[in-house]
Specification:
The chain has about 375 residues and is of the alpha/beta class. It contains 15 helices and 8 strands. The protein is about 45% helix and about 10% strand.
Length: about 375
């Protein structure tokens, strides 16, 4: 097992009717800004519930944070935070809203061009406003980690950043708040959590038995729960399991002491930035092809994945790996998520565009061995056509 340090200060408040606990989680004298996305927070009553829980605190709002939150929108929030002397942020929504809130928290006191936070991957964050979250869409795990992703539309760039200063102080997870989500968003959440887990699991063995078994348990739970959350939208237990799996998939535990890949995400980010495809759907496009192309460096873990997750034990090694990758693709497709670039009306031109952006953003030595070159990315993308 590799050396590691693990730190996660986020308090999780999980279960039905837990938004009322905001009253004891947010400082009594805080000047609070609630950040959220579209009209769903208002239509479902969640926003009113949040405001009621905050009581007599001074409350301001910022609406309109998009899926794949944009730098341009977030800087409007930063201006409002500064003008109104906000000292506590509260994200109400899914991963995009929480990611955006992290950026706002870091940018509010940042000296200089705030886009440098993304360019330097968060290494230059020196302070951040405190914030919490009320999660309404299980997917990214942003509610319990120190990372975020922001898109700058003007230059079609989507970059990730991390800092120990942007952990949420707390996150409220009420599975009942997911009942009204569209099936598309739920399916995206299942795939997002699945690929988060795979990025930390399908690398090479380092005798991380606990991490491996934990990751395999999360994958098995998603395979079991994914179809159920789509077929039975009001099944509280299914939604609760999905919500908790998505959080655990990216809160640092399964990645502690083991090598990680993240190449699927880097390619996926460029597809989203260029073609506005849902983040999870870009992951579903890239992952099966990446696993096939990188099968030699991932062979031992792919065979373990085939046996422990998909119960594939017969046939040659290559046949077992092929079947495990096909089962992965089939699982995504069963959720209504297409896994080929052609399904999104993209062809060779898109391959060339994404490769150009990867080169521009320095994504030329990816993967757990840092040997995933632009040539490897080309092979993967062309295999995904």
């Amino acid at each position: 097992m590799l050396n590691f340090e693990f730190y996660n200060p986020t308090k999780i408040v999980f279960g039905r009717d837990t938004i009322a606990k905001l009253a004891g989680l947010v400082p009594r004298d805080a000047r609070v800004m609630i950040l959220y996305g579209g009209a769903s927070a208002q239509k479902t009553g969640t926003l009113d519930e949040v405001k009621a829980a905050l009581g007599k605190r001074e409350i301001h709002e910022f609406a309109g944070i998009e899926p794949n939150p944009s730098y341009e929108t977030l800087m409007q929030a930063v201006e409002q935070v500064r003008a109104q002397k906000i000292d506590f942020l509260l994200a109400v929504g899914g991963g995009s809203v929480i990611d955006g809130t992290k950026f706002v928290a870091a940018a509010a006191n940042f000296e200089g061009e705030a886009w440098d936070i993304a360019v330097k991957r968060g290494a230059n964050i020196r302070s951040a406003l405190p914030f919490g979250s009320v999660l309404t869409l299980p997917a990214t795990g942003s509610e319990m980690n120190n990372g975020g992703v922001v898109t700058r539309k003007s230059i079609q760039a989507k970059l990730a950043f991390h800092s120990p200063l942007v952990f949420p102080q707390f996150s409220i997870l009420d599975p009942a708040k997911t009942f009204t989500l569209p099936p598309r968003q739920i399916a995206n959440g299942v795939v997002d959590a699945f690929v988060h887990t795979v990025e930390q699991y399908l690398t090479y063995p380092v005798q991380g038995q606990v991490q491996d078994r934990f990751a395999e348990g999360l994958l098995l739970s998603l395979i079991e729960t994914g179809p159920k959350v789509l077929a039975e939208p009001d099944d509280y237990d299914a939604r609760a399991n999905l919500m908790w799996v998505a959080t655990l998939a990216l809160n640092g535990l399964i990645g502690a002491g083991v090598p990680q890949d993240w190449a699927t995400h880097m390619l996926g980010h460029e597809l989203t930035a260029q073609y506005d495809i849902d983040h999870a759907r870009t992951l579903a496009i890239v992952l099966p092809s990446l696993l096939s192309v990188r099968r030699n460096s991932k062979r031992a873990k792919l065979l373990q994945y085939a046996e422990r997750v998909w119960q594939i034990t017969e046939g040659s090694e290559d046949a077992r790996i092929d079947l495990a990758i096909q089962r992965t693709r089939d699982f995504f497709e069963s959720l209504g998520i297409k896994t080929r670039l052609a399904d999104y009306e993209l062809g060779q031109d898109a391959v060339e565009t994404v490769l150009g952006q990867l080169d521009k953003h320095g994504m030329t030595a990816l993967g757990e061995h840092q040997d995933h070159t632009l040539a490897v990315s080309r092979t993967i993308l062309e295999a995904a056509l």
